[in-house]
């Protein structure tokens, strides 16, 4: 940043014109501060755009966890059923002789 100190310390104002209202001129600020402000503004916009995706992902995860729990319960029931059937059917003994 030392090489670009002159550039980043220069003051600049931004002109904002949405086409609907009169244009707005920001006060003159150092370019380094404008870069930081715009960087954080971009982070906020990216966060806002990702909210719906995160809510959908949370909903899907919750649904899948419920499905996994029901499948685990079903597997447990089937294993206990298999164990009870194995207990009812006598195992053949090996007879030598």
Q: Find the count of extended strands (DSSP E, 2+ residues).
A: 4
Approximate shape: rod-shaped
Helix-strand pattern? HEEEEH
Quick check: average pLDDT?
A: 87
> What structural class do helix, strand and pairing data support?
mainly alpha
| Spans of at least 5 consecutive residues with low confidence | none
The quaternary organization reads as single chain
Features:
two-stranded antiparallel ribbon, mainly alpha, 2 helices, about 100 residues, about 65% helix, two-stranded antiparallel sheet
Describe the structure.
It is a single chain. The protein has a two-stranded antiparallel sheet. By secondary structure, it is mainly alpha-helical. It contains two helices and four strands. It has one domain. The chain is rod-shaped. The mean pLDDT is 87.
């Amino acid at each position: 940043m030392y090489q670009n100190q002159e550039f980043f310390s220069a003051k600049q104002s931004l002109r904002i014109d949405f086409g609907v209202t009169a244009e707005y001129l920001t006060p003159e600020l150092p370019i380094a501060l404008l870069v930081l402000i715009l960087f954080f503004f971009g982070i906020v916009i990216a966060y806002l755009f990702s909210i719906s995706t995160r809510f959908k992902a949370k909903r899907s995860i919750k649904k899948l966890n419920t499905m996994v729990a029901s499948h685990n319960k079903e597997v447990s029931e089937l294993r206990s059923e298999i164990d009870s059937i194995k207990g009812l059917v006598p195992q053949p003994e090996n007879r030598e002789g």
